[in-house]
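FIELD: query
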Amino acid sequence: MRFHKYHALGNDYLVLEPSACPALPSPEATRKVCHRHYGLGSDGILYGPVTREDGAFGLRILNPDGSEAEKSGNGIRIFCRHLLETGRVREGQAFRVHTPGGLVGCEVHEGGARIRVEMGTVAFRAPVIPMTGPDREVLRETIEVAGRRFEFCAATVGNPHCVIPVAEATPELAKTYGPHLETHPWFPNRTNVQFLQVLDRSNIRIEIWERGAGYTLASGSSSSASAAVARRLGLVDADVTVHMPGGKIGIGIGPDFSIVMTGPTTPVGTYEMHPGVLAQDVAL
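FIELD: result
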């Protein structure tokens, strides 16, 4: 089975084409392939392109724990780079990618070093995120996990996010409290978690705990949601640079909180996976 590996600011994915695997990998197979020691190692599998009647490139996104994600900003950019590398799109060409979290418009520039994605519109309403409780915008509410209370905002850009403003965003915060927030019962589909530090009107810093993947060096959807929350709270302007451990992503925020994300991608290599990887009897 052939996989194509790329990373986006250290957030790495394996692209698996349907021609190499006609059926979507099972959760167990996904966990084995993505395992850092027993498999090829990655933050997920991008399955596509899947043929669609509307002309968009269909994409399914699998987390390393075997669950499926609605949307991934870094994953979409990587998929766009793969479409360029395999000759399916041209540099500067506008095209669309369909994910379970919605349809996005894309363009590849600078040979894939800069990819522009129209991520959709961020919403803050509880039923849309989804989050339990009455229908309201989830802004500056309080949540308690592992003996600590946080002020948080919730948002969706096609997948759920819990954004926590802090004076200083640190990896320790994400690693310590991220797992508890991800699985908090207020989020029925679990949630991605970001600790948000506002640096100035044009720059924010985030630390990320990603649903189904854990601590992550970078995330496009997390950047989109965090920038939108900071904008909704009046803390930043419409154009924001998001700083993460893996690097920087540019986010443009429209008046309706529509998001345009711009960031890089890097090819890693092509791998022929031995069938013995899937035959392993290991507890994952």
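FIELD: remark
The helical segments are 27-34, 73-85, 171-182, 220-232, 276-279.
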